[in-house]
UniProtKB/TrEMBL annotation:
<dbReference type="GO" id="GO:0005975">
    <property type="term" value="P:carbohydrate metabolic process"/>
</dbReference>
<keyword id="KW-0326">Glycosidase</keyword>
<comment type="similarity">
    <text>Belongs to the glycosyl hydrolase 1 family.</text>
</comment>
<dbReference type="InterPro" id="IPR017853">
    <property type="entry name" value="GH"/>
</dbReference>
<protein>
    <submittedName>
        <fullName>Glucosidase, beta, acid 3 (gene/pseudogene)</fullName>
    </submittedName>
</protein>
<feature type="active site" description="Nucleophile">
    <location>
        <position position="373"/>
    </location>
</feature>
<keyword id="KW-0378">Hydrolase</keyword>
<dbReference type="InterPro" id="IPR033132">
    <property type="entry name" value="GH_1_N_CS"/>
</dbReference>
<dbReference type="GO" id="GO:0005829">
    <property type="term" value="C:cytosol"/>
</dbReference>
<dbReference type="InterPro" id="IPR018120">
    <property type="entry name" value="Glyco_hydro_1_AS"/>
</dbReference>
<dbReference type="GO" id="GO:0017042">
    <property type="term" value="F:glycosylceramidase activity"/>
</dbReference>
<dbReference type="GO" id="GO:0004565">
    <property type="term" value="F:beta-galactosidase activity"/>
</dbReference>
<dbReference type="GO" id="GO:0016020">
    <property type="term" value="C:membrane"/>
</dbReference>
<dbReference type="InterPro" id="IPR001360">
    <property type="entry name" value="Glyco_hydro_1"/>
</dbReference>
<dbReference type="Pfam" id="PF00232">
    <property type="entry name" value="Glyco_hydro_1"/>
</dbReference>
<dbReference type="GO" id="GO:0046477">
    <property type="term" value="P:glycosylceramide catabolic process"/>
</dbReference>
Amino acid sequence: MFPCDFAWGAGTAAYQIEGGWQADGKGPSIWDTFCHEKGRVFGEQNGDVACNSYELWEKDLECIQQLGLTHYRLSLSWARLLPDGTTRHINQKGLQYYNKVIDDLLTCNVSPMVTLYHFDLPQALQDQGGWKSPGIATLFDSYAKFCFQTFGDRVKLWITINEPYVCAKLGHEDGIHAPGLKEPGLAAYLVGHNMLRAHAMAWHSYNSFYRTEQKGAVSLAINSDWLEPSRAGCAEDIAATERSLAFTLGWFAWPVFVTGDYPEIMRSAIDAQSKKFGYSGSSRLPSFSKDEPAILGTADFFALNYYTSRKVEPGGGCGETLCMKSDRDAGEVLDPSWPICGVSWLAVVPHGLRKLLKYIKDTFNNPAVYITENGFSQVGPLQTEDVQRSEFYKDTIFEVAKAIQEDGVNVRGYFAWSLLDNFEWADGFSVRFGLFHVDFADAKLRRTMYLSGQEYVKMILKYKSAQST
Ligand code: NOJ
């Protein structure tokens, strides 16, 4: 039922696990800065040490082996490799670290999937305008080329940018992620635009200079909930659901997979709101230039981060001011019948993943799909026997199997989030997503497999043996 080369993985991100924030010449990133400011993160916590994977990588590798993973998704810290963000200065120790990680994985028969950017911009580049500045795209492209050149002989699966939606909206509209900007209705669109330009440039670089020799694949990881109208058959709710999809999944997937440009309903909604609020500049949603590398076709597979499902109805603006919420005029709510476990935004809806996969197949011309993240969290007292999470993984993977078998979706891999409990951004260490528990009170940061990890081991074994027969 799962193809024989199906990727069974788990993921992490540099800032969430590595620590070593100043070690061996690493430059600061926007998350270092953000966490060191008062009031930004739960309990004033930070990723200075986190799981200390910078020093304890071998322990992580043991976890990966204990799970029997075929793939491991990690991200590179841009500022660890290039402390000021540019290739003018390369940090050899950073290079050595990632070379060792990649080599060790391959020695253990585990294929790396490498994310170039997972929320942690070098602070030096933020100081020059960060993702709001158009020049960031070429700087990202140089960094990407450096990584392809350096690691591409061994890395065959690349993600350029992780969750551009989250970087743009949480970092530049809501201000709850680094760099903590609150410029509603403006900055997020600009940031999303520059992220798409950066991604496309890097994909074209790979395509022109590295693909023939290295034979890898490159995409960007798009997060999306499964969305449904609140009241089935209600025209307003159906329209709101379409708008909501256009402003989330469509914002990034439409330009890359469908037209090379933003969904039409996104632009018309934004422009109509500008008019209503008397905003007189050019469209708040930028336009792609014909003189730059095309955006359309710049993904070799669809990389999906899926966590939850929501019901949608019109509404949810922000009063008299311009903001993304009024632009999309859609409120997304959790259905009260769905169990909520862990964080408040995450209802457990495994069947939503199957529906979303079918939607992706139908809308984006049946692409190869990697589920690059999926998981659910634990908060409050530690439960090592996490029965609910074990059930969640079983149910979800069963839905993926049905998507493949019954709906014919070309799913190529599944990456649980996350290998380890780690620094969950604004929630600090209060939210645990790991298949392994990390004891942050223990000087050795001991890793212990949760029951859900044990179940994942069994599922991988079971499905793998069916794959080979
Ligand atoms: C998506 C992000 O990519 C990851 O960094 C985060 O920990 C998970 N969502 C859970 O919130």
